[in-house]
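Issue 218. Parser rejects a valid record. Input:
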Amino acid sequence: MSSIRDKALRMNLDAAKYGTFAEIGAGQETAAWFFRVGGASGTIAKTISAYDMTMSDAIYGASPRYVSRERLTAMLDHEYSLLTERLTKGRGRTTTFFAFCNTVRARAYSDKGGTECHGWMGIRLQTKPRGAPNDILLHVRLLDDTNLEQQRTLGALGVNLIHAALYHRSNLKMFIESLTDDVRHGSMEVDMLKFSGPDFTHVDNREIALQLVESDLTDAAFFTSDGEVMQASEKLYRKPILVLRGSFNPATLVHLDMLSSAASEFKKHLGDPAKPWVELMEFSINNLFSPVGSFTHADFLQRATALQKLGKNVLVSKFGAFHRLGSYLSRLTQEPVGLVLSLDVLEKLFEDRWYDDLPGGILENFGRLFKHQLRLYVYPVLDRDSGQIRTLSKAEINDTLRSLFAHLTENQRILSIAGNANRELLQFWTTDIRRMMQEGNDQWRALVPPEVAEIYRQTL
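Output the parser choked on:
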């Protein structure tokens, strides 16, 4: 691990790289490092802090939100264009230019509890002299309690991003993990990182989302049904959300029926049935009840591609317990949230053994899980011993928790969905389908959507 001081000095001494720094909302925290270590004239063409909103609008144009991806992009457009217009003629033959920008909402002296401190940060850069520009954008949540600590984190992250963009862009894992150099653990969360441009066409931003979670920079990363990586609140903020979690290896006809059945019931709790809501497939690398097991990035991308072919948004997370997923979603929206699950998974939720890490045990779990307007939508399962389809009314709950179960069902926090559940589909679990695929038994193709069958057929 290199120190921030060493990184800034290395860049100052690299005469082939030269750029502009524009930081608004939280001071000149990144540029300050380059001045502090000496030799800043070797890296910095200009620094600017358009702190006043009127001044900022005059330079970058009016914006409905000052801490946003849109504002960051406008800053990069302006600063990079100005930099290359003025300096390409004189030094463009031997220099790769970059513009580094951020727009941040950090802790203010007047802040009360609950204020979201976050920012957008990015770099537009050439990878060779006179080359076309490329962008690397990220979103960061600042988690420290004081403005001074947040400034320290912000400056270090900025130096790390520029250094990684210039020297580690060919190694995804090293790039991402170097973002935390000299940053105290727990000070920040990087929940979105996106590469774009002609020199990054080989980069799959969905894989970056997975790496952010694996490298512990965030609890969850989000991408849309068309593969666009986004900061989750861009899509989910203040929206009703319906979530199905699983390994989706592969996604099956049962998964689709679970979602469509839950959607019919979910709409009844929206107040306005026409209100737009977001459907989400959550893939957890730490799912307690449906362990993903060992998987490669290629395996993950195959699952993600299949879900996208079905038109689904994807959340990749490290949430094991359901209450952690529920808490995460409640941070994004106060609107209704529905979690779709099968009856056998619900029954596991009512087992004490999963909650040893919670001081309040299973009661604390349900207290966190049902915060705000969250409901569970429970899909039937086939009992392999009896051959009967079991619905919510046949749930096997420990006698000591029966009254809690009754309370939650009577108050419609747990609801039954039946949909088109049928014996022919329910008798095959995902593990059965995987075994068929490995054994060359084509019966599996009738158990998954055609789009999914085609994707997996290509790799068998």
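Fixed in the parser; the record now loads. The first helix runs from residue 4 to 12.
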